[in-house]
């Protein structure tokens, strides 16, 4: 589903190279964890995948279902099924969460040549998904992410993921700032979305989240490259021994 | 950033190039010759069968106007207006006082249909349940028709053109006209006092809550015609009225002058809510043509615990110069000003409000949202003052500007004047652009750039949109280039 | 005779023009300077002092407010006073006469009258614009002052106090001060009077900061209750230069303090802090403009006004962001405590913005002492008068505390504030 080949990317403004020859393949149905110390390029990878203009790809390619997506803008990638759950969800004052959801869902449908959702149908879907994630209807009337607690923000991200039904989900440090109960709710939400035709990339610094979202593969990112890959036991190894051994071997 | 250019293009499309109200209507017109003189004023007055006192009032204003100078303090630039190149009176032939809709020129009705004005009562009834709007439509200089007159009459509400009111309710007009905006107030108000041609008059008697929204649509059609309407609204003790004003004009290469005066008077415990969606032709993308909108609007909270609220959505006009204000004279009175001003192309906006606190325990609230794009300049200018005796005066002002593109300017010029130690004023202003983070977040959710910008701008102005009556809110959102197909509950 | 000369001059306008006429031949300057003086005084005579119709003087109608101007008196003399911060070097100008005794290392100075005589002062005498009444009066009549240079890389250990002491009559002084690249200094520009007789003082400081200079500049205005003080500081901030401008007004009858600056090098940063202690029948106007001319400059302004008695306070602040000055970050706040029913405060905090990628904001508040806070103190047994004084003091003192790196300085300024409050509150 996702194939990243020798990817090099840098910050557009100052030319600092962050991703330096990264290779990664994620199959449909797979949950891949990307782990790495601070500054290894984890968040940059999520931005480059989703098409943020502040980063430039200088070499290599990103194939999504066999096609390069480098020429697509962020909205087109999203409409094709790529979803990024943000580490720091953005506040948009004055725009009710509900309104935002509707615009996003319908714009994506429009891009794919589908009819817009009727209002009752839209409402039904939102209510169902919100109930699953224990999100109060009142929260949906509030402006997007404005004044939400850390846990509410992350749940709102998962709610969007559930409603937009993406094919490739990228979760950027979704566990940061969550207490254990919120973490479980979020993990349940993600697990509910696991399916043979959907892939999930979980970016995380800690192993903790992976107790709840159990990965099929684990990749260690360091200095913009995948330096080691393995199965879920690799995550436990990292938890026990830290990154030093692997980094030492790579350096 | 590429977003900027695209946004500029998008907003420009909505507001400038595709000015959809820019059609011209071919109707036979009755026009006064160009220029201004006592003869022209006499002609206007006689066309309207005005009583002698009205003519005298006009002359007085005219003589004063001759001694006045055009104001120059606002942040607007335009070539000198030749006041002798303007027609001060233009009326569709044979429409002085139609008795019913059947007597109105069908061409004219078509114009209003195109504008989307629910002129025909039955259409309104069929269209919107529980929501009726009485409309007074002003075409160039003449009020064409006022709907729902009968029903309003039952409630005791007088809603008619000011020309009719001068004839039919001279006592009320004489008592209140010019008492909020004196003849000598400013250059354009004085000019208006001399030559005003039509406008609306509303009187809501004691204790009456006006049963429906009242509305006036203004349209300038004729070439080189100035429009000088005059609106006078009086809410007697305990009365309530909500009044809506909409404006359009055809596309023209020449600039046209619009110099209106609006006076509101709220007596004890009365409330007036005045909303404007101003969409005069803004000129083309090179800045050619467009309306000069030099308007004086002022409300007088004359009675205790009275309230006046101005809401405006300003998207049109080449130049906007207007400061809907409140004189908070009555103890416990309250003034509000909610404004959205969008400028694009070469538009210039210098707009804001004045809140003059005179009485005790008066309060005011100002929320202004300016959005500047293209080559435009968008200035908020506002005054808040508390006089010596205005004990416990309270003001809150929030004034935010959003810049789209790097060729435009956004300016904030507040004047804060406190002469009473019990006054509490709070003023906040910000200027920023749409954040990259917000934009990327929307894009990542599959919302294309233009739609994302519209969405964020919509959020930016929401506080003000909420103040508009429902019918206008929808139109306003369209005008600002935002689709709010929300089922937001 | 042109039309403008038909304006009838006020007593103050005549006095200023007369002061000039009386001193012709005596005022220092070479040909260029003298002809510039002539032009400036001619403009003053024809345009008159500004009225409220001039936007920049909207709240300070100088033509009406300035009733009289004392005659210039070349014999007026006053003693040099102690430096406000112990250990500071004092460069003084008394009754317009420069007195250079103690120059710290890294600082060079000469009397400004020398610059007038050799003509090097001519360029700096130009007014900032048609509304620059202070520049005009000062340029026409300036006599003394100091031209100071702080050397590149110099780091001054102790503050330098520029002291303008006046007993009566008129003083028109100028201080062109340049700070070399990387220079670090604390300057105190202090204006005081030594008698109750009225003085009329105009003073213009022209300050430039080269790359990376880091300067604290304090203006301490403590003139007498009958004095008129027309002050102006012009500053230009080079690349990565940092200016912490601190203005305290604690005196004077009619005061206009103008602060006009340009952030003209990337990375330049201005911090402006102002404390206006206003009482009696005084009228005090602080007018500030800052132009962010290049990208990546920052500024932050906080003004605190405390207004007692029948005093009138004015703050006008304008932040201008030029077309290409992207990434500007500018925040301005003006907070006022109105403490008497006859006190009066007008504020006009303006933003004029021509670049889109900026973060700019301003806030203004006017209020009485916070009643909840007051009640809290009362409930703890603190008498009302004391409680009020504490709250007023806290309102202004928190700004002074920002200068915590220099304890002696903080102590000195707090001393000025509490002495003033004791006298007026």
TrEMBL record, chain A:
PANTHER family: ABC TRANSPORTER I FAMILY MEMBER 6, CHLOROPLASTIC. It comes from the Bacteria. Pfam families: ABC_tran (PF00005). The keyword Nucleotide-binding applies. It comes from Sinorhizobium kostiense. Keywords: ATP-binding, Nucleotide-binding. Belongs to the ABC transporter superfamily. Ycf16 family. This is Fe-S cluster assembly ATP-binding protein. Residues 2-248 form the ABC transporter domain. GO terms for molecular function: ATP binding. InterPro entries: AAA+_ATPase, ABC_transporter-like_ATP-bd, ABC_transporter-like_CS, FeS-cluster_ATPase_SufC, P-loop_NTPase.
TrEMBL record, chain B:
Transmembrane segments: none annotated. Residues 152-210 form the SUF system FeS cluster assembly SufBD N-terminal domain. Pfam families: SUFBD_core (PF01458), SufBD_N (PF19295). Residues 218-460 form the SUF system FeS cluster assembly SufBD core domain. Belongs to the iron-sulfur cluster assembly SufBD family. This is Fe-S cluster assembly protein SufB. It comes from Sinorhizobium kostiense. The lineage of its organism: Bacteria, Pseudomonadati, Pseudomonadota, Alphaproteobacteria, Hyphomicrobiales.
UniProtKB/TrEMBL annotation, chain C:
InterPro entries: Fe-S_cluster_assembly_SufBD, SUF_FeS_clus_asmbl_SufBD_core, SUF_FeS_clus_asmbl_SufBD_sf, SUF_FeS_clus_asmbl_SufD. It comes from the Bacteria. It holds the Pfam family SUFBD_core. Residues 169-395 form the SUF system FeS cluster assembly SufBD core domain. PANTHER family: PROTEIN ABCI7, CHLOROPLASTIC (PTHR43575). This is Fe-S cluster assembly protein SufD. It comes from Sinorhizobium kostiense.
């Amino acid at each position: 589903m996702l194939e990243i080949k020798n990817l090099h990317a840098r910050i557009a403004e100052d030319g600092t190279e962050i991703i330096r020859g990264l290779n990664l393949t994620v199959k449909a149905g797979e949950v891949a964890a990307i782990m790495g110390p601070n500054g290894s390029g984890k968040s940059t990878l999520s931005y480059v995948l989703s098409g943020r203009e502040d980063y430039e790809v200088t070499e290599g390619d990103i194939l999504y279902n066999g096609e390069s997506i480098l020429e697509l803008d962020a909205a087109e990638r999203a409409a094709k099924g790529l979803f990024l759950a943000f580490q720091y969800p953005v506040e948009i004052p004055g725009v009710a969460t509900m309104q935002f959801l509707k615009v996003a869902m319908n714009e994506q449908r429009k891009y794919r040549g589908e009819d817009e959702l009727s209002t009752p149908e839209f409402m039904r879907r939102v209510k169902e998904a919100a109930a699953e994630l224990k999100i109060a209807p009142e929260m949906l009337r509030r402006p997007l992410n404005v004044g939400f607690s850390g846990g509410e923000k992350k749940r709102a991200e998962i709610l969007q993921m559930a409603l937009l039904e993406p094919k490739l989900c990228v979760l950027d440090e979704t566990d940061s700032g969550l207490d254990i109960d919120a973490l479980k709710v979020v993990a349940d939400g993600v697990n509910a979305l696991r399916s043979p035709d959907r892939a999930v990339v979980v970016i995380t610094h800690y192993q903790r989240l992976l107790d709840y979202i159990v990965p099929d593969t684990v990749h260690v990112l360091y200095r913009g490259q995948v330096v080691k890959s393995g199965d879920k036991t690799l995550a436990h190894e990292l938890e026990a021994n830290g990154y030093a051994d692997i980094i030492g071997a790579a350096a | 950033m590429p977003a900027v250019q695209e946004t500029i293009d998008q907003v420009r499309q909505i507001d400038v190039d595709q000015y959809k109200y820019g059609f011209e209507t071919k109707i036979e017109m009755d026009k006064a010759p160009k220029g201004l003189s006592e003869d022209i004023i006499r002609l206007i007055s006689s066309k309207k069968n005005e009583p002698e006192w009205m003519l005298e009032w006009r002359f007085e204003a005219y003589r004063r106007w001759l001694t006045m100078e055009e104001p120059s303090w606002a942040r607007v630039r335009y070539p000198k207006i030749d006041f002798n190149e303007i027609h001060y009176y233009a009326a569709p032939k044979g429409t002085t006082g139609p008795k019913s809709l059947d007597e109105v020129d069908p061409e004219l009705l078509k114009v209003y249909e195109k504008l989307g004005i629910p002129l025909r009562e039955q259409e309104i009834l069929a269209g919107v349940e529980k929501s009726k709007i009485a409309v007074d439509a002003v075409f160039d200089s003449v009020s064409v028709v006022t709907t729902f007159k009968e029903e309003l009459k039952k409630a005791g509400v007088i809603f008619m053109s000011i020309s009719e009111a001068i004839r039919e309710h001279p006592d009320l007009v004489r008592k209140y006209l010019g008492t909020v905006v004196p003849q000598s107030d400013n250059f354009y108000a004085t000019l208006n006092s001399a030559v005003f041609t039509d406008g609306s008059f509303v009187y809501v008697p004691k204790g009456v809550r006006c049963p429906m929204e009242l509305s006036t649509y203004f349209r300038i059609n004729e070439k080189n015609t100035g429009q000088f309407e005059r609106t006078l609204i009086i809410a007697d003790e305990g009365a309530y009225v909500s009044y809506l004003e909409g404006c359009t004009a055809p596309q023209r290469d020449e600039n046209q002058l619009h110099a209106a005066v609006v006076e509101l008077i709220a007596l004890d415990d009365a409330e007036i809510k005045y909303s404007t969606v101003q969409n005069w032709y803004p000129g083309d993308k090179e800045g050619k043509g467009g309306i000069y909108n030099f308007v004086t609007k002022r409300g007088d909270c004359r009675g205790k615990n009275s309230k006046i609220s101005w809401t405006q959505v300003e998207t049109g006009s080449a130049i906007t110069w207007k400061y809907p204000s409140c004189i908070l004279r009555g103890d416990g009175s309250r003034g509000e000003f909610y404004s959205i001003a969008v400028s694009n192309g070469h538009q210039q906006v210098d707009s804001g409000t004045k809140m003059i606190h005179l009485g005790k325990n008066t309060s005011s609230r100002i929320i202004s949202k300016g959005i500047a794009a293209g080559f435009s300049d968008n200035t908020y200018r506002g005054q808040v003052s508390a006089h010596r005796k205005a004990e416990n005066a309270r003001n809150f002002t929030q004034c935010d500007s959003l810049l789209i593109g790097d060729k435009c300017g956004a300016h904030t010029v507040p004047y804060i004047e406190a002469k009473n130690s019990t006054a509490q004023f709070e003023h906040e202003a910000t200027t920023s652009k749409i954040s990259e983070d917000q934009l990327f977040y929307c894009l990542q959710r599959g919302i294309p750039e233009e739609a994302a910008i519209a969405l964020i701008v919509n959020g930016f102005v929401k506080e003000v949109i909420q103040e508009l009556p429902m019918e206008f809110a929808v139109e306003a959102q369209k005008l600002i280039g935002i689709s709010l197909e929300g089922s937001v509950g | 005779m042109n039309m403008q000369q038909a304006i009838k001059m006020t007593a103050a306008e005549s006095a200023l023009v007369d002061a000039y006429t009386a001193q012709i031949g005596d005022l220092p300057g070479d040909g260029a300077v003298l002809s510039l003086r002539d032009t400036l005084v001619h403009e003053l005579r024809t345009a008159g002092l500004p009225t409220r119709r001039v936007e920049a003087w909207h709240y300070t109608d100088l033509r009406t407010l300035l009733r009289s101007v004392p005659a210039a008196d070349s014999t007026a003399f006053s003693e040099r006073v102690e430096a406000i911060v112990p250990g500071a070097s004092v460069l003084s100008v008394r009754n317009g006469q420069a007195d250079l005794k103690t120059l710290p290392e890294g600082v060079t100075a000469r009397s400004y009258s020398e610059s007038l005589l050799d003509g090097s002062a001519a360029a700096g005498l130009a007014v900032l614009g048609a509304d620059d009444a202070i520049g005009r009066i000062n340029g026409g009549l300036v006599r003394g002052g100091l031209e100071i240079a702080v050397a590149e890389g110099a780091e001054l250990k102790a503050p330098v106090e520029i002291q303008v002491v006046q007993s009566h009559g008129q003083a028109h002084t100028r201080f062109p001060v340049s700070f070399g690249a990387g220079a670090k200094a604390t300057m105190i520009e202090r204006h005081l009077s030594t008698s109750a007789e009225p003085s009329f003082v105009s003073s213009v400081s022209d300050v430039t900061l080269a790359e990376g200079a880091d300067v604290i500049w304090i203006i301490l205005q403590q003139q007498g209750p009958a004095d008129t003080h027309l002050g102006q500081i012009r500053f230009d901030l080079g690349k990565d230069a940092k200016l912490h401008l601190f203005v305290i007004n604690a005196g004077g009858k009619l005061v206009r303090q103008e602060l006009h600056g340009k952030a003209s090098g990337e990375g330049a940063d201005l911090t402006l802090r102002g404390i206006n202690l206003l009482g009696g029948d005084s009228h005090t106007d602080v007018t500030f403009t800052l132009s962010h001319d290049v990208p990546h400059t920052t500024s932050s302004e906080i003004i605190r006004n405390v207004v007692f008695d029948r005093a009138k306070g004015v703050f006008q602040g304008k932040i201008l962001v030029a077309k290409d000055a992207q990434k500007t970050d500018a925040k301005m706040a003006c907070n006022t405590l109105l403490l008497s029913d006859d006190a009066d405060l007008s504020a006009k905090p303006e933003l004029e913005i021509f670049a889109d990628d900026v973060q700019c904001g301003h806030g203004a508040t006017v209020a009485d002492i916070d009643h909840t806070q007051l009640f809290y103190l009362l409930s703890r047994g603190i008498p009302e008068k004391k409680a009020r004084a504490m709250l007023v003091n806290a309102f202004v003192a928190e700004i002074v505390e920002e200068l915590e790196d220099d304890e002696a300085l903080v102590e000195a300024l707090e001393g000025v504030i509490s002495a003033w409050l004791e006298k007026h509150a």
